[in-house]
Amino acid sequence: MSFIGNVLWIVLGGGILIFFWYLLGGLILCVTIVGIPFGVQLIKLSILGLMPFGVEVRDTKGASGCLAIVMNIIWIFLGGIELVVTHLVFALLCAITIIGIPFARQHLKLAAMALTPFGKTIA
Fold first, then answer.
1. Which among 76, 81, 115, 123 is least surrounded, fewest beta carbons within 10 Å?
2. Alpha-carbon span 9 to 7, nearest angstrom
């Protein structure tokens, strides 16, 4: 079921666009030394954005310390809010129809990951 959901997500849900935009942003951020941690998180989001069905986001054990909190705060102010609002708008648009509700749930999962990506892992 997750395979079919991922194929439909790529074709109908805009998954391929999400993947390429997050991947492009991650690669651009990885050019600078300071941006590497943020670029890695965007690349992680791009993988989740390509195939979100059958994947869950978990908190990483032992990685919720001060550094993760500080990085999440920096992330929120430098672009996390825009990503979350975008995913929430797409979730609202998808939830209008009954058929789009599974896509809306995946956009909500992406919004949660886009808000605070540090200290989380994709499993």
1. 123
2. 5
Share of the chain above pLDDT 90, in %: 35
Candidates 114, 19, 112; CA nearest to 10 is 19
Q: Which two tokens stand for residue 28?
A: 């651009």
Beta strands in the chain (DSSP E): 57-59, 120-122
Q: How confident is the model at residue 67 (pLDDT cuts 50, 70, 90)?
A: confident
- Could you identify the residue written with the tokens 């300071």? 34
Query: How many domains are there within the chain?
Result: 1
Question: pLDDT tens across 34-43, in order?
Answer: 899 999 989 9
Instruction: Give the residue-averaged pLDDT of 87-95.
Output: 92
Angstrom distance (rounded) from CA 33 to CA 45:
19
Residue range(s) defining the domain that contains residue 37: 2-122
The owner of tokens 């749930």 is 105
Burial of 58 (0-12, 13-18, 19+ CB in 10 A): exposed
